[in-house]
Task: structure prediction
Amino acid sequence: MIKRTGKRTLLFQNGVYMRAAAAVAGKKEGEGPLKSWFDKIFEDEYMREDSFEKAESMLQKEALQLALKKGHLSHDHLQYCFAGDLLNQCIGSSFGVRDLGVPFLGLYGACSTMALSLGIASVFVEGGAAETAAAVTSSHFCSSERQFRFPLEYGSQRTPTAQWTVTAAGAVIVSSHKAPVKVASYTAGEIVDFGVKDANNMGAAMAPAAASTLLHYFEDTGQSPSDFDCIFTGDLGAVGTSLLYELLAREGVDLSKNHRDCGLMIFERKRQDVHAGGSGCGCIGSVLSGYIFKNLEAGKLRRVLCCGTGALLSTVSTGQGESIPSVAHCVELTREENI
Result:
């Protein structure tokens, strides 16, 4: 039974479990600090396809197939697939899962899509609408650069606040059958807009949304940062992380002691020259499905929050001089005992 607590947070009381998860990544990500946590690393940015967009679809397909295999499942066991990405009309997702024959619900939360899809899939399972569902997301550096900024051939200069879109995908199989990792709650975020207009400074645009959702979670549940082994944000990078600490400090919340940002975890910034860090749906998607899930499964982490962050801009809105509205969605994950 789903129980609402406070204004925004849904508690899952029947039991929603992450039965399996898989993370796949590109060459640059495979050279970073988290390389051992990925299930598969592609050395070719095209992933044996003839375009970057098709390559991104391949990332999603590969991640989902690996997750199903690890869970000893086939696509016939899935009642629903919740997926999204950064490309127009979410073609990375629709083309990636089109051959599975599974009911598809496309989602768009920008870089927060992993937390969004996992939260909604968990609502379906907890409510009895599904026994097993998938949450999938991806991003690709080259396809995102072409859509949101400039083709790679242009050779544009990157600002110090810019982030490197992660080439990766994550897939999670959510089930009502007991497993070591449990989805305990989901907190949906509201759109927050602090008037940031620089598309090369998305960390600053997303930090207020992350602060808003985390504060709502703490207020709704009566919890504090010290109650968790770690609180992960999606892709705030160096600029956004610093701003998040400042915003929360104004409300009397110190997040600095047990917080990690996936955008700062996935690359070694100085050696790999990614400026302010990583970004993209595949950032938290792959870190959650790899590093976070595996550490929870092994019992090295017991209770975490994963707050996906997304900048809801487009080339159209940027061209019209609009600011960047952002959103953050939060899922609470716990390690179940005696399973």
Notes: The longest helix spans residues 202-221.
